[in-house]
Amino acid sequence: MSKRELIDTGTDKRYVRRDEQGQFKESDDVGKSLAQDVRQHAKTKAKPGQGDRGDH
User: In what side-by-side order are the strands of the sheet with 24-29?
Assistant: First the structure.
């Protein structure tokens, strides 16, 4: 799985993943993503750049 990268669109910030062709495959709003991380305790540990896959 590719790493998430931070994209600043000017109006909001988003975490995105790209596919093999470099096109956006997945996109999440940063604020919602961080809020969800606080609400739930993950059972698995995640590698750097894979924060939505578990805890650090």
Answer: 5-8, 13-18, 24-29
